[in-house]
Design goal:
heterotetramer, A: about 450 residues, Rossmann fold, D-amino Acid Aminotransferase, Chain A, domain 1, 3 domains, 9-stranded antiparallel beta sheet, 5-stranded parallel beta sheet, 14 helices, B: about 160 residues, alpha+beta, OB fold (Dihydrolipoamide Acetyltransferase, E2P), 4-stranded antiparallel beta sheet
Chain lengths: ~450, ~160, ~450, ~160
């Protein structure tokens, strides 16, 4: 087993990794910016190093400072968490070069999957269904039009190097292609330094489902029952659950097999997530995230597997330890992202002093959070305050447990997404299950007697 | 994900205007967001005060009875007669009969004010001071808790 | 399903029951003393009634006040939790008489199992092994001596109506019988209003194991894998785990079958625990608790069953919903009782303001607690502040997770048993597993660099 | 996740303008965000209240390094020179050579005090005020964090 891990992250995910280290007897090193001097990751790690001033570019994205901190403390591995440097192939490569074990796949695999057009090709080569569209990038407007003539409109043009909706344009007819191509390409160039784009059939009424994978260096690959992450706001996931409600068993088996095929063809090692869209009984690959994801606890709850511990075992050259029964879902789990955002003011980010913090307890409740009463949420980083994960024997019980736990969750000092989650759980369509990614966009939030409610605005 | 144009200059002119506005208006903070531009100007902070009761009230959404409306304090020299048991409050010895006391009555210490029935036992509640009945705080035939104020009396001057 | 449950308790167990009610859609009524005006059970229940002044005899043991509160609020059931009125047959009988559903077995069964001598007889009749000893109570010194001649010394004389070590005397030789009989009988009379005693063979080097049972009104009985509660201080359990370390499978099956036999012969309904001593490969019945126990979460963690929810289903006339695989342990769970006691000052109870309260989170961690930062622990009731339950795939991982979570658990304002638990988890004999009930008695606590350590004092 | 262009220069000019604005206006804080650029300027804070570090120290048994020994405050008019990077602290240009400065030396602003090596780069740390070297706070060839005080200087009277 590796001996000391530098955790190149902050907030709840840094705690998550430090906890896994401690349970495995591995020493942990926290790095922190001067804005995070009072943070729990800095308090709970075995060692910690201040790496820079508050802006992420000077601290959590500061590669020289992080590498120096690893050298100073004698860390032999770096766990990047999610966000920040987690999918930065250059960082992974630097780690490889200086002899630090990067907890993740090789820099080559990160780079390959980071190019979305190339990832599509890799998936197609592995026999995984991809949305109908171009083979790789589209060099010109004409290529887009040829694809459109072949598969029909609407289409969506996407940035090859992109993600998160940047450099993306939906095209309803051929007449719109020229302007959209130009716009998407320019935006991609400005955002990612790479203007290349590709094109896909635009699917509506789709669900976002994804498969957690783990692979070790002995060629063993484990895929887990899918997560459904369709409750999103502007491509940001808010609620994730597993298994996906109402998904036929053969679709689940198809998703798991397709993910195993892709991962196998890549020679992948470590944890990753293969993302799909699902509509009308069919699924299509969209991208692969070559890192731990925010919503990994949902899978941990229904499988009993500690995914972060398995990551650390894999990079230590050990074999995966996943019992056979972890591959079928044990009950149902839902994760709620409690963000420091005001749902009534267009999700305006909040910062400041956490006055009261009392997380819920009791059966089937897990909380991953770096908060404590008296903690000051700095304005520099993302707004995730806590993840509440509930687990029960079936989806109905999970929803009721979620309502109970959200109701108990006491955070004051700033607005949060807690009341939004309560409103989602009261929504009839959500309760029936199987909502699409338009779920939140199709609804308005209304304040009613101190509680929030969702009202459908379009049909 | 927000779309970002990193080439636009920072809106320093607008910042100056907001700073002026904060200073002149005396407000604590102004924040403006438009698309990817966000400006926040805050006055020098005052000394914070915190009370736990308030915090919990604002913190736990959806818990209906978190904010206990405490019985009004015995201000103005009023004296509260409280229920010594959990039970049902009756203002008269039996249905149809006269109430023991009414607002404005003068009562003497030891005089029965009401009955609180618990487990079929009629507990007569007596005035522990002499004085005037100023207010009846519980509803006839309604439930009362232990320690719940039932009457306000204005004690006689001594 | 019953519609409204009055929770005749306080602290963490009141919260546990309120949580179960909320998840089942059952309304809950809290009762509280004036010392508990700021308590979470009062805040989180749907309704609440103040029932008396701080002393338990005038509030949580005040039967008329509790019955009146149930009548005023229209509750149709009463859940007694553990302690207070939970094994008070008279209270259960009054509930039956006024038409309130008592969440527990019948008052007759409570009374029968409450008499320890009678419970021994019931167990023997059901074919459950009991410690060699007297048949029922011993009317005179001569009966004790006759038993002694038959089964040999040492013996232990115990109060029939007793529990918790009161009215108990160990007798090494026949010469000591007269004085011990008199003393035990007097103490029993003073404590329980009933001086009758019985006698058992005194077993040393034994472990305390117990079996959780659930039975419904359709004759279905479920027994769960045993809990080991051998880490005790003066008959008070401090750490409970399940399954019992190193217990042979046939012993587990024997314990579960014996418990099912006893429960079946009693026509038992609801949740209960059959307690045994275990030594040298053999187990003997000691008593049955006809109520929910403090340590029920340990069984919940390894079975996935919500025991309190099942209690409420049973009294609603529904069938138990326990999947077949809940009867074999899924992983390993350990519970730590975090008490407001100072381990270095003879476990002196603590009270006062909780300044910091930050429970641990992350995978496999459950906390049942009524604490929050700013809560004032009243001096009137028991010292249990929180239960930390950890769950992992095997005992070794559970212990490491326990160390991690205890280490994170932040409570300040008073001394607690947190450092004692850390010391137990570092003890080599505990780590090997299978310690006897003398574990803590045979050790001294030592303070070393701010941490506690256990040192063995006898061999 | 957005990829960040780490090569763009920091908008120092704009920062300076905002600093000036905070000082002149007397407001507590200004924050401006545009796209991936974010600037926050805050006035010197008021007296701090309770520090969490203390509380945790008494609360979390068994966490060895919870009590961070904060660098001693710049009392008595001393000026701290802090490390701008994470790295290894060297008092001399090369092994065997003379140290840059010793306690008691008088240094002028801009003079090299030490080297902090990070990623094979030798960062010369210079005095930002003129004055006397009062204390060397880091150990030769030891690691230093960002913002860690390296020297105390007593600035010259002006």
């Amino acid at each position: 087993m590796i001996g000391k891990v530098l955790v190149a992250n902050r907030g709840e995910i840094a705690l998550r990794i430090i906890r896994a280290c401690r349970e495995l007897g591995v020493r942990s090193v926290a790095v922190y910016s001067t804005a995070d001097r009072d943070s729990l990751h800095h308090e709970l790690a075995d060692e910690s190093v201040c790496i820079g001033p508050p802006p992420a570019a000077s601290s959590y994205l500061n590669v020289p400072a992080i590498i120096s901190a690893a050298e100073l403390t004698g860390a032999d591995a770096v766990h990047p968490g999610y966000g920040f440097l987690a999918e930065n192939a250059r960082f992974a490569e630097i780690c490889e070069r200086v002899g630090l074990t990067f907890v993740g796949p090789s820099s080559r695999t990160i780079a390959r999957m980071g190019d979305k057009a190339e990832a599509r090709e890799a998936a197609a080569e592995a026999g995984v269904p991809v949305t109908p569209g171009s083979d790789g990038s589209c060099e010109s407007v004409d290529v887009v039009k040829r694809v459109g003539a072949e598969i029909g409109y609407p289409l969506v043009i996407k940035a090859s190097a992109g993600g998160g909706g940047k450099g993306m344009r939906v095209v309803e007819t051929e007449a719109e292609v020229d302007a959209a191509y130009l716009g998407a390409s320019r935006e991609a160039g400005a955002n990612f330094g790479d203007g290349s784009v590709y094109v896909e059939k635009y699917l509506e009424n789709l669900r976002h489902v994804e498969v957690q994978v783990l692979a070790d260096s002995y060629g063993e690959t484990v895929t887990f029952p899918e997560r459904d992450c369709s409750v999103q706001r502007r491509y940001q996931k808010l609620i994730e659950e597993s298994p996906a409600p109402g998904l036929p068993v053969d679709v689940r088996e198809g998703l798991m097999a397709a993910s195993a095929d892709l991962v196998g063809s890549l020679g992948y090692e470590g944890a990753g997530t293969v993302e799909f869209v699902y509509a009308d009984g069919k699924f299509y690959f969209i991208e692969m995230n070559t890192r731990l994801q925010v919503e990994h606890p949902v899978t941990e709850m229904i499988s009993g597997v500690d995914i972060v511990a398995e990551q650390l075992k894999v990079v230590s050259g050990e074999r995966l330890e996943v019992p056979e029964d972890a591959r079928s879902p044990d009950g149902h789990a839902i994760e709620f992202r409690i963000n420091a955002e005001d749902p009534l003011r267009n999700f305006l980010p909040q910062a400041g002093l956490v006055e009261v913090y009392n997380p819920p307890g009791g059966p089937g409740v897990r909380v991953d959070s770096h908060l404590y009463a008296g903690y000051r949420v700095p304005p520099y980083y993302d707004s995730l305050l806590a993840k509440l994960i509930v687990h029960a024997r079936d989806r109905g019980s999970s929803i009721r447990r979620g309502l109970r736990a959200l109701d108990e969750f006491a955070v004051s000092g700033m607005e949060t997404t807690l009341p939004l989650h309560l409103a989602v759980l009261e929504d009839e369509e959500f309760r029936r299950g199987g909502v699409t990614t338009r779920f939140l966009a199709d609804r308005e939030l209304e304040s009613e007697g101190g509680l929030l409610r969702l009202n459908r605005t379009s049909v | 994900m927000p779309e970002i144009d990193e080439n636009r200059p920072l809106p320093l002119k607008e910042v100056e205007q907001l700073v002026e506005l904060v200073r002149e208006s005396g407000v604590g903070e102004i924040r403006v967001r438009q698309g990817e531009t966000e400006i926040s100007v805050r006055a020098r902070p005052e000394v914070p005060t915190t009370s736990f009761g308030d915090q919990v009230a604002s913190a736990t959404q959806g818990i209906p009875d978190v904010v206990e409306s405490e019985p009004s304090p015995e201000t103005d020299g009023l004296h509260a007669v409280r229920s010594p048991v959990v039970g049902t409050f009756y203002r008269a010895p039996a249905p149809g009969e006269d109430t023991y006391v009414e607002v404005g009555d003068t009562v003497s210490a030891g005089q029965t004010l009401c009955i609180v029935e618990a487990m079929k036992l009629m507990n007569e509640i007596v005035a522990d001071v002499s004085g005037e009945v100023v207010e009846v705080l519980a509803e006839n035939a309604g439930g009362v808790e232990y320690d719940q104020p039932l009457f306000y009396l204005r004690p006689d001057e001594q």
